[in-house]
């Protein structure tokens, strides 16, 4: 199965403290153009709301985007909470954007996000890797982690 | 009236806020006030930032930009980040004690160096209390501009919060100054007339809730002539709609969208904004830095930008009096928005809420549920920002060449990066 050939329901969300919009508008258009349905939660999404929405709308994928520099911290909090919910333990959840305040990718922090339960972590502007993620065959063990690690190293 | 009664007829001088007075006096001396966006959780760094801003070779005011946890009212998260020594994207004014903030400002803030708190909160109560407690008299915000693009608070609640915030500010600070963020909606791709109208309406809202010194913002967009026309339109509308005796000025923001990534591109865009400020009669400029495309700028980068902007402003020429202003209809459109809202009733907060409900005001690309989301904009071949769709707004659509019903992600990316591209690759 190739992800892009079936219509997925993708939940697009910001992190809890991030009020930016353009990243969310762009992701919505991009994911829709790839043939999927988007549920947009908008900016500043609290963890409780994210979990509630994941339960209610049963998305196939969650895309979390952040540019305000609190992405590592907020992402870690969100995924830790989300993975505690048994019904959401297997849900693919990815994160990307400007995740720290220094502007430099922080590989340790990104690996920390993966260890805490994110399926993939994308650096700011790495749309190609995100597209690749959405179009590669699903189900290959370790595929997301491969992409994520490669992304960290090459970004 | 007898001659003896005449002295009582002379109006007392308007009590200007220290912030408003500083800007007015600088303008009278022909100097543009420049200001950074600057906020650090680390106290020595924040202090150094204020000191270096003050000593920069420019006419400056200082800034405490507040972190986004505090902005959202999540003071526990800000406190935890402070305790853990984690990086924050601003100064957590509520988590720091009043004494700490007073000590931070002691010996830096004075009549020659006002300090403004910049935040972005639709629930500003705690921030206002904290800044008033620390003796600060200037801040910014707005019922619409701190709600619609940047959060989840219902507009109705934000309006109520900002009415109370204005009243709290007026009650706790002797002569406060409040700036509308309304000239920024989403930072880019909002046509100038709507920015002008929202900025003006928010300033009127502030005055109706007890604030006597206000500034109206306008964020530099895609085209210098269009921006100049917009600032002039804002000044005309301010003169017409603000109550007599209001102390007001225009503050320009250097481009708030995707910023050039090269040093020369960022520098040229900044200088263009400084010249625009001088040409259009804005009295204050909030600068950006070359680091903006990547991360939060350092103190040194901010100082370099302040000095570069001041230099560009000093070399800019004011058009001679009587020079005809560019006129493409921005003033008429903005006036149509303003009167459409004011005609909805005496309670401006209610009218703003109703105007968004009815789509009379409709910010393009804004995801907030209280925004109708039927308007769309585009950048035409000449670089002018125009309406491709106006939804239910009280203006005409502008279906010139290049107008598109829908934008693809690539086209959106291209539009968002247009200014950066132009300045990075001249």
Automatic annotation (TrEMBL), chain A:
One of its GO terms (molecular function) is metal ion binding. Residues 7-144 form the B12-binding domain. CDD domains: B12-binding_like. It comes from the Bacteria. Pfam families: B12-binding (PF02310). InterPro entries: Cobalamin-bd, Cobalamin-bd_sf. This is B12-binding domain-containing protein. It comes from Streptomyces niveus (Streptomyces spheroides). The lineage of its organism: Bacteria, Bacillati, Actinomycetota, Actinomycetes, Kitasatosporales.
UniProtKB/TrEMBL annotation, chain B:
InterPro entries: Cbl-dep_enz_cat, Glu_mut_E. One of its GO terms (biological process) is anaerobic L-glutamate catabolic process. Keywords: Cobalamin, Cobalt, Isomerase. The keyword Isomerase applies. SUPFAM superfamilies: Cobalamin (vitamin B12)-dependent enzymes. Coiled coil: none annotated. The keyword Lyase does not apply. GO terms for molecular function: cobalamin binding; methylaspartate mutase activity. This is Methylaspartate mutase.
């Amino acid at each position: 199965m190739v992800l892009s050939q079936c219509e997925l329901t993708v939940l697009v969300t910001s992190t809890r403290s991030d009020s930016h919009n353009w990243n969310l508008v762009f992701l919505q258009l991009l994911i829709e153009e790839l043939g999927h349905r988007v549920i947009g939660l908008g900016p500043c999404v609290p963890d409780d709301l994210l979990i509630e929405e994941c339960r209610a709308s049963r998305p196939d994928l969650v895309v979390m985007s952040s540019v305000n520099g609190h992405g590592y911290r907020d992402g870690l909090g969100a995924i830790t909470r989300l993975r505690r919910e048994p019904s959401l333990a297997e849900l693919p959840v990815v994160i990307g954007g400007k995740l720290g305040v220094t502007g430099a990718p922080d590989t340790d922090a990104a690996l920390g996000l993966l260890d805490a339960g994110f399926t993939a972590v994308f650096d700011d502007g790495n749309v190609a890797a995100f597209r690749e993620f959405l179009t590669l065959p699903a189900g290959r063990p370790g595929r997301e982690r491969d992409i994520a690690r490669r992304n960290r190293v090459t970004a | 009236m007898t001659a003896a009664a005449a002295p009582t007829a002379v109006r007392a001088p308007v009590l200007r806020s220290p912030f408003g007075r500083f800007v007015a006096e600088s303008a009278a001396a022909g100097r543009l006030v420049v200001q950074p966006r600057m906020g650090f959780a680390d106290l020595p760094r924040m202090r150094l930032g204020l000191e270096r801003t003050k000593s920069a070779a420019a006419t400056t005011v200082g800034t405490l930009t507040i972190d986004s946890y505090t902005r959202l009212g999540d003071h526990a998260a800000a406190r935890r980040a402070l305790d853990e020594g984690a990086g924050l994207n601003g100064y957590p004014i509520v988590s720091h004690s009043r004494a700490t903030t007073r000590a931070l400002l002691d010996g830096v803030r004075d009549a020659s160096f006002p300090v403004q708190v910049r935040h972005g909160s639709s629930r500003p109560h705690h921030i206002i209390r904290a800044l008033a407690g620390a003796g600060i008299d200037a801040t910014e915000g707005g019922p619409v501009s701190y709600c619609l693009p940047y959060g989840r608070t219902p507009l109705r609640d934000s309006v109520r919060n900002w009415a109370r915030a204005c009243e709290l500010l007026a009650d706790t600070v002797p002569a406060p100054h409040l700036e509308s963020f309304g000239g920024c909606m989403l930072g880019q791709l909002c046509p100038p007339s709507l920015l002008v109208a929202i900025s003006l309406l928010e300033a009127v809202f502030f005055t109706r809730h007890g604030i006597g010194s206000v500034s109206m913002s306008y964020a530099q967009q895609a085209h210098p002539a269009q921006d100049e026309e917009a600032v002039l339109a804002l000044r005309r509308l301010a003169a017409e709609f603000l109550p007599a005796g209001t102390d007001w000025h225009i503050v320009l923001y250097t481009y708030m969208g995707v910023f050039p990534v090269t040093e020369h591109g960022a520098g040229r865009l900044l200088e263009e904004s400084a010249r625009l400020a001088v040409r259009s009669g804005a009295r204050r400029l909030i600068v950006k830095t070359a680091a903006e495309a990547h991360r939060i700028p350092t103190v040194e980068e901010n100082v370099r930008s302040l000095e570069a902007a001041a230099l560009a402003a000093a070399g800019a020429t004011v058009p001679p009096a009587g020079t005809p202003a560019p006129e493409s209809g921005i003033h008429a459109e903005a006036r149509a928005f303003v009167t459409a809202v004011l005609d909805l009733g005496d309670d401006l907060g209610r009218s703003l809420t109703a105007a968004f409900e009815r789509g009379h005001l409709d910010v393009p690309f804004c995801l907030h549920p209280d925004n109708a989301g039927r308007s769309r904009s585009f950048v035409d071949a000449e670089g002018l920002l125009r309406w491709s769709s106006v939804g239910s707004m009280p203006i005409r659509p502008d279906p010139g060449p290049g107008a598109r019903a829908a934008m693809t992600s690539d086209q959106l990316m291209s539009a968002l990066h247009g200014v950066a591209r132009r300045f990075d690759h001249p």
